[in-house]
Design goal:
The chain has 224 residues and is mainly α. The chain is built from 10 helices and no strands.
């Protein structure tokens, strides 16, 4: 017997491309990108799978679209804004949104969504750097340094998946019980740092690394 679509309260709302993309993001957020299939998407929307093809050509188009939606949420540098503060806000915004959509960084890096919002983001970052006095070569390296930090740090953070603060504390405590502190004193110190309450002024490791990159870029430009 064929599986019937799951009835939903919003099933009477007319189907649209926007509803399809929103539902795809909801599934990816709740269950991971691997759970996003055309059948699951149809069930989520309370329709037959064939109905989806009036609005999207295939799953690849859906992946491109949801990646573009996520990138479109990033705060872009305002024209004429001070470059360092503007790019910092953009990078922090991108990181926070990518962590919220834990599947998105790997999807964006795969090449999905290299259009629309993604191109606007790239152009805005590089435009801010060029207008701030960076050469074309410096801008090329600066863009890739910033992109590597945003994407690399995000992939590391979502990949760690250490659970809640309470679960992390329990894991760290158990690790310390097994660790030879005399042999690895600085590892022990590092774990204790994770257990300490964070200073409200401490923006965390992502911001720390980002500021190192931005400060370095500023010195590089000023020496040229």
């Amino acid at each position: 017997m064929a599986t019937q679509p799951k009835p939903r309260e919003d099933a009477r709302v007319p189907l649209s491309r926007e509803r399809v993309i929103d539902a795809a993001i909801r599934i990816a957020d709740e269950s991971g990108l691997e759970s996003l299939t055309m059948r699951r998407l149809a069930q989520e929307l309370g329709v037959e799978a064939m109905s989806l093809y009036y609005y999207v050509a295939n799953k690849e188009e859906i992946l491109n679209a949801i990646a573009d939606v996520v990138v479109g949420e990033w705060e872009l540098p305002s024209p004429g804004a001070e470059w360092k503060a503007a790019i910092r806000r953009t990078a922090v915004s991108a990181h926070e949104i990518l962590v919220r959509h834990r599947w998105a960084a790997s999807l964006v890096l795969s090449g999905a969504g290299v259009s629309g919002a993604r191109l606007q983001y790239m152009n805005s970052i590089m435009g801010s750097l060029r207008e701030a006095g960076f050469s074309a070569d410096q801008t090329d390296h600066a863009y890739h340094a910033l992109e590597s930090h945003i994407m690399g740090f995000t992939l590391w953070e979502v990949g760690m998946n250490l659970g809640s603060a309470e679960e992390l504390a329990a894991l760290a405590t158990g690790f310390l019980e097994q660790l030879s502190v005399d042999e690895f004193p600085y590892v022990a110190e590092h774990v204790h740092q994770h257990l300490k309450p964070r200073d409200p002024k401490d923006e965390g490791s992502f911001a720390f690394g980002l500021d190192l990159i931005l400060d370095g870029l500023e010195r590089l430009r000023d020496r040229a």
